[in-house]
Amino acid sequence: MKKIFTYAVSLLLVAGGVVGCNMEPKLTHNISVEQSTASVQDINNILTGALNQFASYRFIGRNLIALSDMASDISQYGPSSGHFQSINLWTFDDGDEYLNDIYTSGYVVADACTRGIIGADKLIAERNEKMNSADEATKATLANEIAALKSIKAELLSLKGMTYFYLVNIFGKAYSPEHSGGYGLVLIKDELIKPKEKVTRATLQETYDYIIKLFKESLALPCTEERAIYPNSLNTKAFLARTYLYMGNWQKAAELSAELIGSGDIPTEPGTAQAYADHWKSTAIGAEDLFSLLKSDQDNLSANSLNGLYGDYEATLNPDIVKAYFKHKEKKQVNGKDTTVWVPNNDYRFNLIVEKSKEFATPHPMKFNGMPTNSNLTNIPVMRVSELYLIAAEANAQLGNVAEAQKALFFTASRNADVTAADKLPAGKDELLQYIAAERVREFFQEGHRYFDLRRTGAVADIAGDPAFKFYNFVYPIPRSEINAGYLDKQYQNDDWKNNLPKRK
Question: pLDDT-based confidence at 1, cuts 50/70/90?
């Protein structure tokens, strides 16, 4: 598979901070696993390189998040720049640059993680063998190295699982018993794909099973990493809960989210309005962060950042969505004339859409406005505490556990001061699920959840001229360059993607 074996090896060479638009890896695919994994530091370098690519604008750092909002009813592209126009208007084809970047970058990460896992296993085995004849001081050193290798391996397994999760939700259909036998991903499992090796796609069920396997294997290892800027046991378990939610396994999603919420490692209160606002104005890791991609002034983010997309490139939020989920507009007298203005309610999240002083403004999302010193500098949230509570709410609502669902939902719903108690939230299953869906819009606008939420729930939305477009059967095409390279046969293309495009009126 061209993209897989062409790019991946030299990610270990990228050992600095998370980089931006200069992230194209060098083509050094002839380096063997043995050459690239000779030490603990080599394995750690592979992890760093894989995280760099995961965080780049080609993958989570912009494209995946922007695609989800732009392909849904949340965001609108800026006509002056045209960035994400093809996605927003649904005029893309199998040569689309955004889809190509997502596909390529995802497999770069998956390949690098596999290389690191293979290398870690090799080094662990070597050090265990040396233990038999080593003196006590050497044994202590070897034991420390084994512990470090197991911890890094846990992170690599988790990152690989996250990467496949995102890829399968772009290039595979929404998980369901109906779709489970259809195409999933090309899976790089225990061995690297060799140059010019023919590859096949696993089924959707096999792909999800493998993702779960990766997360469980990660959680079975002693991971010493606790920082939210790396995969760790906490955010791995949270991501597993998200995976179960997407699969409709409500019981396991409810159990895992409850376990995490009750662990003492997760905030039990949502914090103040000011703390929430400040979260988006700092690169410091805060209480809301379970897994965030840390950015710095050295990342050379340029206009390819999410900040640039909603800033210089003038992408906006859909006013109709803002009206439906946050506030409404009304006419008031301004200089003797009827003028339409935004009317505030008591949900402080709206302050990240329209500034209080700009009641006439087009809705501009401000989560990624950057820092005063660098307008392109903002961390990228992968998993927040608020999502864990909304997973718990939705899973319990599906199971009929109304009180538990209300309690979890209140964590985010209470950001609207009009919501004063959990038991005041809807009690009927259908009404409660509708409220949760709306709450996910209010909580996650600009964070890349909407497209995936519409897909997995079978909901409809007004998309590209189709007033009731259903995302459930839609899947993006595998990039043309992959098919034309000859390693993935044409039979493995998502041929029905054109048949499931919005029907323009």
Answer: low
Residues of the domain holding 35? 2-307+379-500
Chain centroid to Cα 261, Å, comes to 21
Residue 18: CB atoms within 10 A of its CB come to 24
Whole-angstrom distance, CA of residue 138 vs CA of residue 144 = 10
Range name among 1-5, 130-134, 343-347, 447-451 with the lowest pLDDT average: 1-5
Query: Is 161 a domain residue?
Result: yes
SS3 assignment, position 465: coil
Looking at residue 255, which CATH number applies to its domain?
1.25.40.390
pLDDT over 70 for what percent of the chain?
A: 87
Q: Do the domain assignments include residue 465?
A: yes
* Cα→Cα distances 389→242, 280, 410, Å: 11, 19, 9
Q: What is the 3-state secondary structure (H, E, C) of 44-67?
A: HHHHHHHHHHHHCCCCCCCHHHHH
Please count the structural domains in the chain: 1
Is the residue at 44 inside a domain? yes
List the beta bridge partners of residue 264. Answer: none
The answer to whether the beta carbons of residues 122 and 37 sit under 8 Å apart is yes
For 25, other C-beta atoms within 10 Å of its C-beta total 22
Whose tokens are 């998502």? That residue is 494
pTM above 0.85, yes or no: yes
Mean pLDDT of 160-180: 98
